């Protein structure tokens, strides 16, 4: 086995979850997933496709009809026309990210990632034998995380092949403003650096906007900019288990991405793609409901957390997570494991997202029943009262 | 974009197919896929799962119930007990191969592949920046391809990280005997080389055997041998479009493969995995029928090909392809494109599988209606009469 793989850290989220999975007395909030099933209209499209016998290989880049739907959806959100020739359908958002890294990163290349961040984003360049550096986000006194733009500009130089940025950010809820995206784009144009923008949480955005969508690099960039944007059906359409995502690419990159898809997974099941088409065709009935509900979840949980002694928490602008610090509990992995064992509460340790997250905990607030969140907060309060730490 | 990707050849099979796809007057035999839909009992298992709301993330390595079914199936075919802890479920056979290469190959490592072979097997090490060498199979005067074992042993040295071998072989139909597998295994044990055995055609085997299965490295190897075996539901269960396969791994490698799956695709849809469980539970009703039918297809097509002037063809021991040479037509890509344009016949050019296949054509004989094969052979005869070349 490769040394790279042997030393690649297993997800600390999985480490905590494995310790508590299958235990009926644990309330799990560790994964980034709603507990609502996929809307019926979406599942029924897959069922109709299966019954029609659509069980054969399909195009590497996805069904033309799905690519057209995605292009139209992208244009609705981000303005201008987006050609379907820029879209590649992938086996989920994580697969889209991996394909992008395979397309762009040679061994020894320098990759810069803004962290804390979902660990998959930093693992992928390592699998491709790149040299990884991080630009740290930092929490303010109110618990809100911000980017030091000067530090990012210092880190990203002509030697930087790829900048990886996930905003709205998992786990912190930090988002990029349009102004910051403009600065980053201009800087990367100057250095010749590719931007890999993981924008899968764009629709889970709680600031007032006309379209219900976080700022995107796609709002600013030209088609042939060195920009690859990753999207997914998972969060906005309650489709985590379907493994369906997409890439928005410079047109010249798309045929090459088709080759990479051939060599990685060949294609996506047609019936899964039919579900994707149905999801986009019913987007107006699905996504705004999802976002409204998640905002209500956030606004249920946050005051409960903020009311606890020693908790530093700030409402996320986007995403589906409360990211908070517990004073007096410096080792997040230890804390998360204790919470499972002693409180029946399943959270993700902040250091799973990089050392910047040490001492913090991530709580996925995507809960069909907000009462589950309140019960979780009660368990945390009881545990804090017993375990102390203040 | 990486130079590696820019220069990576697009599949010549796709190049021919793209020239003829959507044309109703072309009989397509270019892809490695039957034209029979998935058995209903399999699709219905997925539908039941969807209706039950199984639309969430699942384990990186696959559902425990599916891993158990696969382990039991593997043990039935290859003797001894196979622990489910050695099984990783993947997004198709090609994804299994890619994950194995990611797990084993560092940049600059030497990889040796037996060729001609499905081009994905030689593309994957290049994506991982390995140095690729090939050991050529060679055709005899009767059109049957064989391995020069001495050449393989010379090529695979202590400097060789990985040997990639696909038998039964796509495209040639060549298979490894148990004796040859023993020699290769002993040699690779001595050199410390990993074997990546693509055995997805093992059940499409036409020699008399008690179990209806080609010889496998799993019949001989110890669990901790440096051996990774790739399998797929695609061919044996008429499930190409489902993208479901698996790896049989040394037990110590499995947890690390779980990490790689997390970083590549995270997991496979639960409803797809339920279909896999149903397929294995109904294997006795499905696979022997598939193999019997494919044998009949082979035995329909081969005599028709052999009766044509200038055709050199030998019945494949395994797989789903007739691989034949057309005398007087040295450039297979040109020939394949002409056949599409002038004869309405869609075949894959042999040089798509490496330079060893130049001048040969691959015909996938997996046809629900054998009369399609006869019609194809008539088209080829007519074209040969007109185009000549002898």
Task: Tell me what the structure shows.
The structure is a homodimer of 390-residue chains. With 390 residues, chain A is an alpha/beta fold. Chain A folds into two domains: 3-38 and 285-384, Alpha-Beta Complex (Aspartate Aminotransferase, domain 1); 40-282, 3-Layer(aba) Sandwich (Aspartate Aminotransferase, domain 2), CATH 3.40.640. Chain A has 13 helices and 15 strands. The first copy, chain A, has helices spanning 3-7, 12-20, 40-51, 64-78, 93-104, 119-127, 149-155, 178-191, 254-264, 270-281, 283-306, 332-343, 370-387, and strands spanning 27-28, 87-90, 110-115, 131-136, 138-139, 145-146, 160-166, 194-198, 227-232, 245-248, 311-313, 321-326, 345-346, 348-349, 360-364. In chain A, the strands form four sheets. The first copy, chain A, has a seven-stranded mixed beta sheet, with helices on both faces. In chain A, strand 3, helix 6 and strand 4 (131-136) form a beta-alpha-beta unit. In chain A, helix 5 (93-104) packs parallel to helix 6. Chain A is globular. The model of chain A has no long low-confidence stretch (mean pLDDT 96). At the A-B interface, helix 1, helix 3, helix 5, helix 6 and helix 9 of A face helix 1, helix 3, helix 5, helix 6 and helix 9 of B.
Low-confidence stretches of chain A: none
- At the fourth level of CATH, the homologous superfamily of the largest domain in chain A is Type I PLP-dependent aspartate aminotransferase-like (Major domain)
* Subunit organisation of the chains: homodimer
Share of β-strand residues of chain A:
15-25%
> Strand sequence of the main sheet of chain A, in spatial order?
2-10-9-8-7-3-4
Instruction: Give the N-terminus to C-terminus distance of chain A in angstroms.
Output: 45 Å
- SSE pattern of chain A: HHEHHEHEHEEEHEHEEEHHHEEHEEEH
In which range does the helix fraction of chain A lie?
40-55%
Global mean pLDDT of chain A: 96
Give me the CATH fold name of the largest domain in chain A.
Aspartate Aminotransferase, domain 2
Count the DSSP helices of chain A: 13
Tell how many strands the DSSP assignment of chain A holds: 15
Question: How large is the radius of gyration of chain A?
Answer: 21 Å
Overall spatial form of chain A: globular
């Amino acid at each position: 086995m490769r040394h790279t793989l042997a030393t690649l850290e297993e997800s600390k989220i999985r480490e905590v979850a494995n310790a508590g999975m299958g235990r009926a007395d644990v309330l799990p909030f560790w994964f980034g997933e709603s507990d609502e099933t996929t809307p019926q209209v979406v599942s029924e499209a897959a069922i109709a496709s299966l019954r029609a016998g659509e069980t054969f290989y399909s195009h590497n880049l996805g069904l033309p009809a799905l690519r057209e739907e995605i292009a139209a959806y992208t244009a609705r959100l981000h303005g201008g026309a987006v050609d379907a020739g820029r879209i590649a359908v992938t086996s989920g958002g994580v697969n889209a990210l991996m394909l992008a890294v395979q397309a762009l990163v040679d061994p020894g290349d320098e990759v810069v990632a803004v962290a804390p961040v979902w660990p998959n984003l930093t693992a992928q360049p390592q699998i491709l034998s790149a040299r990884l550096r991080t630009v740290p986000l930092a929490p303010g006194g109110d618990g809100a995380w911000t980017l030091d733009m000067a530090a990012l500009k210092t880190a990203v130089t002509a030697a930087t092949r790829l900048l990886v940025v996930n905003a709205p950010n998992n786990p912190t809820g930090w988002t990029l403003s349009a102004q910051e995206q403009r600065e980053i784009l201009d800087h990367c144009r100057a250095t010749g650096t590719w931007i890999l923008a993981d924008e899968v949480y764009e629709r889970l955005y709680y600031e007032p906007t006309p379209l219900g969508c976080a700022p995107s690099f796609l709002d600013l960039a030209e088609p042939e900019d060195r920009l690859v944007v990753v999207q997914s059906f998972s969060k906005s359409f309650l489709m985590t288990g379907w493994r369906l995502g997409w890439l928005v690419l410079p047109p010249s990159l798309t045929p090459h991405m088709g080759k990479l898809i051939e060599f990685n997974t060949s294609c996506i099941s047609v019936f899964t793609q039919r579900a994707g088409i149905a999801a986009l065709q019913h987007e107006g009935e699905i996504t705004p409901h999802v976002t409204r509900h998640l905002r209500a979840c956030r606004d249920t949980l946050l005051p409960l957390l903020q009311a606890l002694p020693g908790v530093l928490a700030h409402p996320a602008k986007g995403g589906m997570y409360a990211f908070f610090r517990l004073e007096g509990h410096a080792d997040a992995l230890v804390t998360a494991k204790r919470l499972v064992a002693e409180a029946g509460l399943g959270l993700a340790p902040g250091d799973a997202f990089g050392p910047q997250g040490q001492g913090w905990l991530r709580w996925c607030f995507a809960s069909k029943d907000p009462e589950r969140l309140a019960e979780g907060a009660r368990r945390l309060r009881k545990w804090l009262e017993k375990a102390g730490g203040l």
